[in-house]
Amino acid sequence: MTIDLQAKKAELLSKREELLNRLDAIKKDYASGLSADSEEQALQLENAEVLAEISRVTNEDLQKVTQAIERIEHELAQ
């Protein structure tokens, strides 16, 4: 069972890293600001709504993954 838990923990740690990278990419996209071109600005504003939702879902997933890692660590410590 310990081996299964350790494998699952490794999988979750990898998933957590992927989620953190996704959030970082979203933050960088926001930080780049708006284009000087008004048509490009319109597209960027539309994309901002999508990015906000992706960010929200990613944060929820990150919380679930972190909680799962904590449960596994607690189980392994016993």
Structural topology:
Layout: H1 2-31, H2 38-77
Helix pairs in contact: 1-2
How would you describe this protein?
- With 78 residues, this protein is an all-alpha fold.
- Helix content is 90%, strand content 0%.
- The chain is built from two helices and no strands.
- Helix 1 runs antiparallel to helix 2.
- The longest helix has 40 residues, at 38-77.
- The mean pLDDT is 91.
Please outline what is shown here.
Helix content is 90%, strand content 0%. It is an all-alpha fold.
Descriptive keywords:
78 residues; mainly alpha; single chain; rod-shaped
Task: Count every beta strand, where a strand is a DSSP E run of 2 or more residues.
Answer: 0
Radius of gyration: 18 Å
How large a portion of the residues is in β-strands, by DSSP E?
under 5%
Structural class: mainly alpha
Major beta sheet summary: none
Low-confidence segments, given as residue ranges, are none
Distinct helical segment count: 2
Task: Give helix % range.
Answer: over 70%
Would you list the SSEs in sequence order as H and E?
HH
Large-scale geometry: rod-shaped
Mean pLDDT: 91
**C-alpha termini separation:** 12 Å
